[in-house]
Design a protein that fits this description.
Length: 131
């Protein structure tokens, strides 16, 4: 079973290493030490904890009426407007999402760099690569 350092876990969870360390210190996620004394989190424990974090975060959002369940809350990092189409980039934790939409939709939503937004993904084809 693969284990993760606090720093690796933080990157995967989209939080700072300090936050991941505090969660470990508080016992929210189990850790063990390797032969060199580094704290590690078992992959299965980290997977379960990431689901727990995501589920608790869902309760923080306003009620959403959508069938798209893959939500990535983040911050708008770029907006490129064309005559008809637009491109919006969102940084959601370690994930960069790019969406192509109409200029009209961007203007109606008032999307600007620096504002919070949620990218929702619904797809019939999702590819998974092994790291």
């Amino acid at each position: 079973m693969q284990s993760y350092t606090i720093g690796q876990a933080a990157r995967l969870l989209g939080v700072s290493p300090d936050t991941a360390r505090r969660w470990a210190d508080a016992g929210r996620v189990a850790t063990h030490r390797d032969e060199s004394g580094r704290r590690l989190i078992d992959g299965r424990d980290l997977a379960a904890f990431s689901v727990e974090i995501a589920q608790s975060a869902q309760g923080d959002e306003e009620d959403s009426y959508t069938s798209a369940r893959n939500a990535f809350p983040g911050i708008v990092t770029a907006v490129k407007l064309g005559d008809v189409a637009a491109q919006v980039e969102i940084q959601a934790g370690p994930h960069r999402l790019v969406s192509l939409l109409t200029r009209e939709a961007v203007e109606e939503l008032g999307l600007e760099v620096g504002m919070q937004a949620t990218a929702r993904v619904k797809s019939t084809s999702v590819h998974i690569d092994r790291a």
